[in-house]
Amino acid sequence: MTDPRRSIPRTDALLAHPRLAEARRRFGHAQVKALIVAAQEHARKGDLPPSDVLAAVLESLPGSAAGLRPVINATGVLLHTNLGRAPLSAAARQAVELAAGVTDVELDLGTGGRGRRGRTALAALAAAVPAAEAAHVVNNNAAALALAATALAAGGEIVISRGELIEIGDGFRLPDLLVSTGARLREVGMTNRTSLADYAGAIGPRTGMVLKVHPSNYRIEGFTADVPVARLAELCRERGVPLVGDAGSGLLTPEPLLPREPDVTTWLNEGADLVTTSGDKLLGGPQCGLLFGRAELVERLRRHPLARALRVDKITLAALEATVAGPPTPTWESLHAGQAALRARAESLAARLRDKGIDAEAVGSQSVVGGGGAPGVVLPSAAVALDGAIAAVLRRAEPPVLARVEGGRCLLDLRAVPAEDDDALLDAVLGVPPEE
Ligand SMILES: *Cc1c(COP(=O)(O)O)cnc(C)c1O
Fold first, then answer.
1. Cis omega before residue 433 (within 30°)?
2. pLDDT tens column, 169-193
3. Which of 78, 161, 166, 278 is the best mutation target for the ligand 1 pocket, counting ligand atoms within 8 Å of the beta carbon and taking the most?
4. Whose CA is nearest to atom 5 of ligand 1?
5. Are 255 and 151 in a shared domain?
6. Least C-beta-crowded within 10 Å: which of 69, 94, 200, 205?
7. What CATH number should be reported for the domain holding residue 313?
8. What angle do CA 255, 142, 196 make, to 5 degrees?
9. Which of 349, 283, 337 is nearest to 79 (CA)?
């Protein structure tokens, strides 16, 4: 019989493990090595099975018990809310790292006096949306709407179509948020049809704002009508009330692949006074809410006392700036990945898995945008199909892989997986024990 201690993983092999390599960058080489040596020692004394050494080291890492873990998103859902929506670009990650230290976020180094908070991020937003006179950043799109409703309509009315009273997810209902600001909703039209006359009849002296919401996560088909922003804007201008648009999904300019998704620039050009959107959806940046529009309105919102409670930290500002001014985001890359390239990656991964004796096959697949965006839009994709039973095991792999189970098979959809993560995906599948 061989001595089980001979199967204790070697130090250099453990140090090279992706999660421990990452841990070395975070906590330093010496600390990680000490944890490895301690776990090996336990195994040598017979207190720990050699196969559990890696798990023991991972468990003993500082803060890892409650910490977030990097996950490979093989679901085919580009913006997976439970996986934190948009992953940041390498440029945004670097900016976050830099911003985490002491920075000039609110200091003018030229004069030594106070500077406009986040001015470089605001400049990046201005360059990205020239149609906006001004911009402001808050914690998320819900906060942007709460700020607009509070500053413009508290104690008055928000005119909104019944077809746009939406629930976004996890029980979050937009109307509840709006009413919580002290504004009342003046609902107009019907679920499926709202006309310009409906709005015209409802706007009055109590109207604080008219709100146009993009119903981002569902679509009504059939006998429907709604009022385009351009016509609504004309009416609002005549009546002297601001038109606020919740575009939701984070596009600053039109995206040809998603022709039904509204974008900030188009709505502003059509006459909306203020447009809100999310930072961590199709924009591909950090969680935040963006407000664009007329300088006078943006300033009113910025000066409102509530704005202070909704303001973002320096790390968000840095990530946002790098996202807006930087190279294409991972979200953009995923959206635009060609089906042939995805298919080639799936074929190659499946072949490499078959070489190791794993039953794997490249198949066609269908991805979606997710994050409550682009309902009904299907993005043709490619996946590696494995035995359905493996999906649960993969969630506990290193790194964890979130797959999709379809027709009894486990699909690893590659659209939301950056190509550079293919090797990590392969290792995770290969590391799964053959029979559980
Ligand atoms: C996602 C979404 C919201 C909420 O945005 P958060 O950034 O998650 O607060 C609001 N409105 C619409 C139309 C959305 O799509």
1. no
2. 778 899 999 999 999 999 999 988 9
3. 278
4. 141
5. yes
6. 205
7. 3.40.640.10
8. 65
9. 283
